[in-house]
Amino acid sequence: MASQRTVAADAFARKQVSRTGRPASSPRMGLPAQPSPLRPSSLPLDTVLVGDCIAAMNALPASSVDCVFADPPYNLQLGDAGLLRPDQSRVDAVDDDWDKFASFPSYDAFTREWLAAARRVMKPNATLWVIGSYHNIFRVGSALQDLGYWILNDIVWRKANPMPNFRGKRFTNAHETLIWASRSAESKGYTFHYDALKGGNEDLQMRSDWFIPLCTGDERLKDDEGRKVHPTQKPEALLARTLLAATNPGDVVLDPFFGTGTTGAVAKRLGRRFIGIERDPGYAAAARERIAGIETLSQASLLVAPTKRAEPRVPFLSVIEAGHVRAGETLTDERGRFRATVRPDGQLDNGLVIGSIHKIGALVQGLPACNGWTFWHTERNGRKTCIDSFRNEIRATMAGA
Amino acid sequence: MASQRTVAADAFARKQVSRTGRPASSPRMGLPAQPSPLRPSSLPLDTVLVGDCIAAMNALPASSVDCVFADPPYNLQLGDAGLLRPDQSRVDAVDDDWDKFASFPSYDAFTREWLAAARRVMKPNATLWVIGSYHNIFRVGSALQDLGYWILNDIVWRKANPMPNFRGKRFTNAHETLIWASRSAESKGYTFHYDALKGGNEDLQMRSDWFIPLCTGDERLKDDEGRKVHPTQKPEALLARTLLAATNPGDVVLDPFFGTGTTGAVAKRLGRRFIGIERDPGYAAAARERIAGIETLSQASLLVAPTKRAEPRVPFLSVIEAGHVRAGETLTDERGRFRATVRPDGQLDNGLVIGSIHKIGALVQGLPACNGWTFWHTERNGRKTCIDSFRNEIRATMAGA
DNA sequence: AGATCACATGAATCACGAT
DNA sequence: TATCGTGATTCATGTGATC
């Protein structure tokens, strides 16, 4: 039975942490390629906790996860009053419309509660993803703004094959919305693999509208009778893009509405760690079985290419010391409009002011700022060379050392 | 002076309705093709009222308009420093006073007030459109749900040519969101021209994601010195699709944030009546002059504007997500001279450098540029397949999207 | 006349580490 | 915590000048 294979989140909430619920045959999941340091050992990594997500999150240590992906319940009329109404109120009205309208406050309370619990668990630079449709996403967006989250983007998942509108009364509802938010407006150091996404998009910035098919075919979990196990299983491609964009290998991703574990499956494949929380033992069991069959991609393919900003800093003085540029030499911009003289201390002199390559570059152009490395050029045999190429040579020699 | 040509909304609010503010030389605008019956004669049709939109709406008779289109302030939270492009030029951002709110609660209060005023003016089967971005749309959506509006769709305006993200810190913010809502859940008789939209969309249901260019070129209103008159003028194509979908000829469209009158211009062209409310006399004057130059299309030509097809740009990442190529797989050129490994983020790795299919293709050949789509091949059962064929398969699934 | 290039610009919550 | 110096960063489209 699924329930025998589960980790009880309530037990975890009482600090009686036990991972023995995971079947012994289950392999270790998602060995981290680059484990984050200082992670509390009490985190139930690569585990599916069964129980209420708010209690389970409140039992986790604060500031302990790098990313949250949440696919909360959308529909306010599911009749699952226990989940949607933390105040335990139950609406017996048969009138759907009244039910929906009356339940906004309780849905909002539930939303605020789980968003607050998630925020506590997030590291200062962690980010949160939430997916929803027009039924709930406005409630979610307002709540997370009210709680101090800082929205970075809203992302449109454009469905390749949406369900048509059968009655012809509306536009085909062909998309869902994801909100990507940092923990607060001050969280400037969040992870975003800008260059990787750009490189995977023909060297153009990745936009906020993503075209991805629904989860169908072999990817869709089915039971013995061929029925879908979960009504709203998300495509792995969607999760892959979010995790590639906003996490590093080894990062911990928390999913408080784990369902059948798409987040865990993708996290494991991409060398991330996961913590799943799921109320339904059947879903949790299906998720475990699914994730056990996933293999992590090779570490080499997961390595994050260093960004330009992360490369070692090279003083312009080093370029002179290395002999690429001589003191007393004249530098010009690419078109030869501006000139400055190289001083032996690594500063430039335009005849009036002495300063850094950046400062003098900005000055001669009358601009507030300038990247001197790409602005200034040397001339050798009538050919102009950007001084940034000398920096690259020095960096290459540093890499070998 | 603009202020001499305006209709004072405050005066209208005091029931001292006067349309003499409209210059005598101004032609009658937007003669209705099929006037709706029972319209109160006191409606200031095809007029721009100047003043506070809430007061002006409260002065209109209840249940009198067929549609509302609203482009409220977005409550953008601008950094103090402003934003510089990579070439150090400054972005002409929205920093107008009308977009400044002290806090979310004050924005929410404003939003609730104008939404409530609009709802009173709406006929029982009228619908409301609101456009916004992630800065404000969640507040708006929550507020209108709270007020009893019934959301029919959220629509994504995918911008053909959005402003890039200059700092590489986020996804390109390439869309805005429209909410389409009826006055209440009981409003079952709202107008929706399903068949017309389908007919104008190659016999496919019109989806909730619309691909439309920004308002630029001749359509963009400019002052004598070539500067844009309004910072956020919307494209007429966007308004045209909303009005064609949700109104009939002769219907009255109310725009409480009229700006430079895109709603009025499109309404007149399509044979709808309009009521514009605008706080700024300068904008109102520009709107009047603009609308005066519009001619109503003949009845026969009131067809759905043909949908602009999205340039079906496909990221190489999508090819991996779709399973055509696996992360970790090796790609070669047609003759098998060069090799590179596919990364899960859609980049290639030739063992030394990580980059896009184009960049690595160029690199291995020592060429300045390369079309990676036609250069790289997979090998299956000894047969080589160009990765461009996978792109074509994905494009086939994008038909209609 | 047509092609090419240089430049401008659009609702934007847009840096970061060392000292 | 604040200040300061380095130096990273853009896509589609329209307009007007130049070849």
UniProtKB/TrEMBL annotation, chains A, B:
Domain RAMA: start-end pairs: 301-397
Q: Keyword annotations for this protein?
A: DNA replication, DNA-binding, Methyltransferase, S-adenosyl-L-methionine, Transferase
The record's EC number reads: 2.1.1.-
Source domain of life: Bacteria
Q: Where is this region: Disordered?
A: 1-39
Q: Which organism is it from?
A: Methylobacterium komagatae
DNA methylase N-4/N-6 domain: from which residue to which, for each copy?
Answer: 65-288
Report if keyword Methyltransferase is assigned: yes
Q: Which CDD domains match?
A: AdoMet_MTases (cd02440)
Catalytic activity from the UniProt record? a 2'-deoxyadenosine in DNA + S-adenosyl-L-methionine = an N(6)-methyl-2'-deoxyadenosine in DNA + S-adenosyl-L-homocysteine + H(+)
Q: What is this protein called?
A: Methyltransferase
Family, according to the entry, reads as follows: Belongs to the N(4)/N(6)-methyltransferase family.
